């Protein structure tokens, strides 16, 4: 007996040392690098030992040799007698298996969690969750073991029976949590403590909180049932079956406000959106009913359906005002995700809220879309990057377990859970049964705390069902008969919860019924359900868009700067700190730029950009430019970020001149983005919509890369103002030009953008010299309105001396929508043919005309394709009294490029007797040929065609 006492007090397996070894081993299993080297070597050797019991290998496998080693170390202790060895071995073995059982529940307990309100699946067999798997018998259940690495009790020991009950209460009831994939031990311990200390039940849900939850469920259900009877058959994407989402969202708003959040930006698709608008954001039900009845705003050119519209309001929470904004979004499901993140980032920077403590992005997903849409992964990949992080996003999943009406869940994804994609950024996931609204609120509160504590993404997966079809015109029982037999029998979450509270004597039956009747009356009266809404509250961080909304379109802006100012700016952007060692090529570039700013040599495209950026920054306009190679420039023309070749004296070895112009300048941000187009462009659109005083630019590495972001262009950039009244000054730089580089890197698909142009919705520009890029960038901010700008930027022209500009071109004048003939040797009266073009092909034509000594053919450049400058074009035509032939010339194939768009504009300005022709490549399925020799043949042919005596007449006046 005395020897056993000595063993318990001195062996590292027992007494005060046992928890230490157990904790080390748990840490080792999660991350071998997190333990000391001698312990890592010891555990490595044990893990590599052969199994002795023949059991299945699991994540916590091969415990037998470990237990044996622990026992051997105990036996080797000089204070342990031989008579106690067998007993020590048995105790050590069981203690380690208790730790394995705890680890198994933390990792696998979710598979036994009661998550499905429809209870359609039987509980799967998981041997690792059964005590018998570890050799425990009924007799062992009442034995006391160490539980020092758990948070179930303040005691360091519990009986196995109590440990098992605590594990199942915590991890196998209405909440199933996935967090063991997180590599940071402190995060895992935080989640363990929060879950295990309450056994997965929020101890703070008192009677008042329960009544509030019931009120939320009553409102969620009440709105849907009212709309169902009042507007029969109209689409609304009902929330019935997922009413707990409203309780979850209410908790997000109020609890995040308690933690200091002042703005919440929400993105969500259709399901439950109308419920969110009325019951969370306080939209007047009467306004919603008017939309159902076909009434609409006269201020929008086109408008949108009611379940796409956004809304914003200021709510008076228990901790102060919170601005809540629901982003507008189209039917492309998850595409709103990066837009929300961009908007949140802009608002955070406006507040200098660089850790995201005041501005919170919230994304609401559907289960199938979350696992099926690639933009979800792209957006998640932005979460922890420097240029796109927002301090963590709260993701709420309305998990209907079905997706679309005819979807078979077996075909909706290849993962166990719809949320598995978030494991790529190690986000924890709280799966919760939607029929347990208290658990939903608890999981939501935990998620908010996690996000605010760690600044990382977190997911609450509300497993529910969808009472009706994908929309209210569907009959889901046609394709899901068994599922909908269960749904028909389901009494509804509100009824289940009301019955629970009645049984707990929290409320009476009469009170529960009264809540339903009272809400119905509120709907009948069309009154607001959320009080108080702060109608007279104005945050000092709010942007006033009024000055931008009522301005009329104009092509002109005073963008020129005095020579003295240009020289001063030139000095600032070519300075580097003492001791900073630039690459020899960059040193030459900076030296050339100094000469350009002094007027000694002409400006190139990169210098035109830099002077525009710097002048805007010094005038108080921020500049943000992102893309996959934006710092250097894909074609090494920009060099906004300089790299110290020694990297000894600088934090990251870089210096950005545009960030060091003055102490009072506006921010300049340049980011080499992740390899994404869709999410990054969506992010920048969201940023630009929230920050009109920053020149926000997304640059494609090659113009055709924009194809990967077509949804953002179609659904937001080109149509956002027409549908939602959302102005955006987003600028897209898309390198475009036919230089024999093959089909993949020639065309930025000008024709697609022009097809989307109407109602002055955006600007499509193809500048052909350095002064034009300077003026158009400055014009984008100086004019009193915000329109998207699509810039088709050059490649070979970046260093073409013919495309350079004297300093006087930016100290005078402004952006030219059309550049007239510049050759003074052309006699206007003798001109019978006018070549009209856009982009690089102008220089091919001008050089060919010079080489062929042609003096009766004029060439003009259309720099702004849309809006087409009719007056400027008409003025150019008037210069040539004997003009009879107008030929549009383009590099692109005939079915691509501007031709089919622009021919009607050209024809409109022609006079009687004039004929219109086309010179360019034939129609093609591919944007360009892949063979350089063939490209050169085609290029020569189109130039010859432009100057040929005879041409094919397309249109004639």
Short précis:
With 957 residues, this protein is α/β, with parallel strands linked by helices.
Describe this structure in words.
The chain is α/β, with parallel strands linked by helices and 957 residues long. The protein has four domains: 195 residues, no CATH class; 319 residues, Thiamin diphosphate (ThDP)-binding fold, Pyr/PP domains (Rossmann fold); 182 residues, Rossmann fold, CATH 3.40.50.12470; 138 residues, Multifunctional 2-oxoglutarate metabolism enzyme, C-terminal domain (Rossmann fold). 39% of the residues lie in helices and 13% in strands. The strands form five sheets. The chain has an eight-stranded mixed sheet with strand order 3-9-10-8-7-4-6-5. Helix 8 packs across helix 18, helix 12 crosses helix 23 and helix 20 crosses helix 22. The radius of gyration is 34 Å and the shape is elongated. 47% of the residues are buried.
Q: Structural class, please? A: alpha/beta
Q: Do you know the CATH topology of the largest domain?
A: Rossmann fold
Q: Helix amount, in percent?
A: 25-40%
- Which regions are unreliable across 5 or more consecutive residues at pLDDT < 50? 1-19, 49-65, 70-85
The domain tally reads: 4
Looking at CATH, the homologous superfamily of the largest domain is Thiamin diphosphate (ThDP)-binding fold, Pyr/PP domains
From the N-terminal CA to the C-terminal CA, the straight-line distance is: 116 Å
Number of strand elements:
25
CATH C-level label of the largest domain: Alpha Beta
